[in-house]
């Protein structure tokens, strides 16, 4: 870390600790979420589009239920993670463009967890039920059964049994091991994170989640958008890790990596994410039901489009805009 980046990091953390950074206060965001689908093929395309509906959580509350234009044909909830989404069935002639709009108001508060409690990893054995079973299992992206993931997790953990000590070791390894870049609209897997030179925020998240799940610690990807300006906001993903008492702790290893390098003023680290983001869905490898078929979406961040005729020629664009930022 250079001297300049070190100074930037100190200023960044000082402003955050003093409550001067905007993301340390509750925020209310009126959101305009717009999607266009262009048929660039030479044939008429029939397709389904699933538009994510923001969830209510302990740190995010949807004040007004989303309004859709045009009206969706149905609303559904995925059976694995409980994400809600609106479904449109549509037909486009060659060269035509369809527009879909979702508007809502969401109240977001900073999410902070103290890392000084004494919790042992053996306490996870007391968790019962299937409510969060999906966050304990490997999937296409969180490859917690990968031998290399298991080897790395065991090497980092050693004989440690304190949950926060283990999480700090896993988080530090991901933050320092990976390099940020090459953003994609989908999701890098934990295997990608271990084998590629650079990955985007999703690669940081899936690797940290895989390390946790391999040791019996539930973890879930959170995907959404930054809410830092009235202009078009970029997509972002982070994660949440379940503690033995059933509560969640946030982590944002890609932002923590960038902050260490003095390359961002956004919030995000193990134990804290601010009110500068809106979550649209949880989990990854999400089952989406469209037209009587179940399809797998990497994440439900952008609208998910599926056609029996194949995706060729269907160009989807998403715009996530904050109409106005209100405090409190």
Automatic annotation (TrEMBL):
SUPFAM superfamilies, alphabetized: Cysteine proteinases
Pfam family name, one: Transglut_core
SMART domains named in the record: TGc
InterPro entries: Papain-like_cys_pep_sf, Transglutaminase-like
Sequence ranges assigned to domain Transglutaminase-like in this UniProt record: 193-255
PANTHER family: BLR5614 PROTEIN-RELATED (PTHR33490)
Protein name (record): Transglutaminase-like domain-containing protein
Taxonomic classification: Bacteria, Candidatus Uhriibacteriota
């Amino acid at each position: 870390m250079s001297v300049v980046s070190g100074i930037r990091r100190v200023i960044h953390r000082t402003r955050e600790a003093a409550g001067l950074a905007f993301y340390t206060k509750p925020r209310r965001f009126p959101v305009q979420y717009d999607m266009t689908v262009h048929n660039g093929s030479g044939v008429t395309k029939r397709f389904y589009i699933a538009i994510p509906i923001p969830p209510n959580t302990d740190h995010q509350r949807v004040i007004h239920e989303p309004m859709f234009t045009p009206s969706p044909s149905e609303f559904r909830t995925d059976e694995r993670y409980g994400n809600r989404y609106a479904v449109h069935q549509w037909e486009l002639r060659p060269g035509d463009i369809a527009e879909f709009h979702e508007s809502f108001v969401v109240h977001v508060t900073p999410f902070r967890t103290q890392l000084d409690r004494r919790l042992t990893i053996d306490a996870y054995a007391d968790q019962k039920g299937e409510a969060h079973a999906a966050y304990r299992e490997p999937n296409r992206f969180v490859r917690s059964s990968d031998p290399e993931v298991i080897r790395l997790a065991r090497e980092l953990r050693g004989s440690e049994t304190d949950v926060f000590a283990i999480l700090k070791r896993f988080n530090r390894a991901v933050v320092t091991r990976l390099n940020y870049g090459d953003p994609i609209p989908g999701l890098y897997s934990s295997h990608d994170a271990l084998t590629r030179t650079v990955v985007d925020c999703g690669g940081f998240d899936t690797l940290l989640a895989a390390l946790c799940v391999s040791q019996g610690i539930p973890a879930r990807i959170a995907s959404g958008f930054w809410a830092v300006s009235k202009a078009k906001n970029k997509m972002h993903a982070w994660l949440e890790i379940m503690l033995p008492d059933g509560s969640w702790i946030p982590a944002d290893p890609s932002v923590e990596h960038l902050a260490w390098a003095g390359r961002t003023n956004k919030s995000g680290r193990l134990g804290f994410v601010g009110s500068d983001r809106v979550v649209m869905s949880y989990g990854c490898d999400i089952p989406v039901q469209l037209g009587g078929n179940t399809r797998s979406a990497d994440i439900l961040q952008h609208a998910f489009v599926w056609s029996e005729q194949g995706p060729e020629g269907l160009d989807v664009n998403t715009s996530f805009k904050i109409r106005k930022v209100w405090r409190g």
